[in-house]
């Protein structure tokens, strides 16, 4: 009887050990939430580098006031950062005054995949906050021609509400079902450099050149347009890219064969865009 009691006691203790361990375990791809601080310039998001293998970090924002889904507001490329400085920062200057927000970050470490933080604490955007917005006429659309694989503007040109000091450009967001990428199109005046480096009006694009090989012979969906700004900090040499909220744009072709903005493009030969995808 005593022997049975001892065995039962041992089993009970082992069970408690494994239960307690299980309760303490968090998903391996979930990291501690970033710190957030309200400043005059916006909301400062600060996180920690987890390793030197990090290739980039996406910053997501969720509008609590309007109960909106998270949006990708930017990306950080930490190449060249000081290894002794274990933190990174990203200032959200496009929030709406008085609205309440939370943030999370997504890390990409190449062969090790993606890692996502928990949501930050809630913060209210400070007085004077005014989002950079991309304005689109309701009748505007993108036209696609399968002859030459050309995508072009059709209607009144979209505009960006920005001051003269803001260097936001226009970019296209597209997905092949596995990857969602952001592709530079033109500057705020719808001009881009030609092969000689001269700024010229640019309102159509060859998708065989614009899109990478990973979009070859796959169903492509055009998600819309964003404003995009690139900044390289002189102190830490870190490149930060800021995005305005995504605006959905309809895509049509002459034969009206495109449905839900989805179509195929054969033989693309361009380069990769910037990772815009959402990781759950």
Relevant terms:
4-stranded mixed sheet, 23 strands, 2 helices, mainly beta, 12-stranded mixed sheet, 280 residues, globular
Number of strands: 23
Major β-sheet profile: 12 strands, mixed
- In round numbers, the mean pLDDT is 82
β-strand percent reads 35-45%
Helical fraction equals under 10%
Radius of gyration (CA) equals 23 Å
Task: Give the distance, in angstroms, between the N- and C-terminal Cα atoms.
Answer: 53 Å
Explain what you see.
It is a single chain. The chain has 280 residues and is mainly beta. Helices cover 10% and strands 40% of the residues. The chain has two helices and 23 strands. It has helices spanning 2-24, 207-210, and strands at residues 30-31, 35-39, 42-48, 56-63, 71-77, 87-92, 100-108, 114-117, 123-124, 134-135, 141-145, 150-154, 159-160, 169-175, 180-186, 191-193, 199-201, 204-206, 219-232, 239-243, 251-252, 262-264, 274-275. Strands 1, 4, 5, 7, 8, 9, 14, 15, 19, 20, 22 and 23 form a twelve-stranded mixed beta sheet that branches. β4 (56-63) and β5 (71-77) form a beta hairpin. The longest helix has 23 residues, at 2-24. The N and C termini lie far apart (53 Å). Residues 5-27 have low confidence and may be disordered.
């Amino acid at each position: 009887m005593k022997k049975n009691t001892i065995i039962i006691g041992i089993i009970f203790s082992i069970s408690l050990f494994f239960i307690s361990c299980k309760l303490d375990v968090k998903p391996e791809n979930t990291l501690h939430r970033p710190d957030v601080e309200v400043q005059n310039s916006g909301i400062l998001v600060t996180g920690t580098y987890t390793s030197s293998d990090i290739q980039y970090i996406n910053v997501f924002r969720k509008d609590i006031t309007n109960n909106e889904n998270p949006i990708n507001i930017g990306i950080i490329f930490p190449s060249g950062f000081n290894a002794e400085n274990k933190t990174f920062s990203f200032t959200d200057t496009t929030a709406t005054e008085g609205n309440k927000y939370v943030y999370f970050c997504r890390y990409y470490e190449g062969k090790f995949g993606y890692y996502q933080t928990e949501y930050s604490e809630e913060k209210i955007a400070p007085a004077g906050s005014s989002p950079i917005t991309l304005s689109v006429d309701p009748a505007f659309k993108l036209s696609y021609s399968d002859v030459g694989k050309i995508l072009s503007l059709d209607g009144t040109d979209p505009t960006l509400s920005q001051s003269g000091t803001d260097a936001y450009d226009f970019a296209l967001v597209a997905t092949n079902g596995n990857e969602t990428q952001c592709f530079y199109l033109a500057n705020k005046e719808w001009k881009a450099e030609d092969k000689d480096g001269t700024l010229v009006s640019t309102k159509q694009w060859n998708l065989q050149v614009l899109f990478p090989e990973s979009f070859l012979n796959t169903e492509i969906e055009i998600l819309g347009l964003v404003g995009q700004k690139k900044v390289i900090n002189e102190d830490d040499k870190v490149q930060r890219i800021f995005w305005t909220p995504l605006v959905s744009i309809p895509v049509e072709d002459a034969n009206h064969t495109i449905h839900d903005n989805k179509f195929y493009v054969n033989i693309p030969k361009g380069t990769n865009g910037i990772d815009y995808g959402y990781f759950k």
